[in-house]
Amino acid sequence: MIDYAKLRRQVDAHPFPLVFATISGAHLYGFPSPDSDFDLRGVHLLPLQQVVGMTPGEETVEKSGVYDGMEVDLVTHDAKKFFGLMLKQNGYVLEQLLSPLVVHATPEHEELKELARQCVTRYHGHHYLGFAATQWKLFRKEEPPRVKPLLYVYRVLLTGIHLVRSGEVEANLLTLNESAKLPYIDELVERKRSGPEKGKLDAADVAFHEQEYLRLVAALEAAGGMSTLPEQPSCAEQLNDLLVRLRLSK
């Protein structure tokens, strides 16, 4: 159960006005453990003086710690930086923007969500291939190997495959697996939720999952090659107009 009231208190304490704040991480991906922290992500709006003046404002605000008995990791970007990332085939920021776990919203958040659909391109597949490779390296570095980083690998690959095939951003691994039908996902999620004693893998497990990793990488590469999505975002002007309106309204 997510205590939104407590999370809103952290959002309300932000030093700048927020366009939105959502929950990302394990809660968004569908496999939180009882001790999972809450990853809050969002967009803030720097005051005009800090944008046009000689002293730059905080493009990124970070805050982490235990508040009201909850471990919270909050990261927000100024609107200009976030909008730029939306135009750079960055699937991660689209996941944050489109997260259904909303802590704070504004009318501009809804406008941004509509524009996000015009940011999706066939080349987002490259983002998820690189992301998956990084997650796989992190998984293989650990000794003994653990279920949690392996779930992140599968989550990234299935999100990427689904995106380049459908144009839809879906970050929840259990939802993605309804169509992917990987028979081992539910068991891995249950092991992760059951605690650290069941969250470790043996050599046979690792060998099997390495083959699955390579198979899904190939599937993502193939899906990207056959994708009918556009090559470039089509909403740069709309994002610019929204940014100007946001700046001038504060």
General description of the model:
The protein is an alpha+beta fold and 250 residues long. It has 2 domains: 4-119 and 233-249, Beta Polymerase, domain 2 (2-Layer Sandwich), CATH 3.30.460.10; 124-226, no CATH class. Helices cover 55% and strands 14% of the residues. The protein is built from 12 helices and 5 strands. Strands 3-4-2-1-5 form a 5-stranded mixed sheet, sandwiched between helices. The chain is globular, with a radius of gyration of 19 Å. The relative contact order is 0.15. The mean pLDDT is 95. This is Nucleotidyltransferase. Pfam families: RlaP. InterPro entries: RlaP.
CATH superfamily of the largest domain: Beta Polymerase, domain 2
Count the strands? 5
Low-confidence stretches: none
CATH architecture of the largest domain: 2-Layer Sandwich
H-E order:
HEHEHEEHHEHHHHHHH
CATH fold naming of the largest domain: Beta Polymerase, domain 2
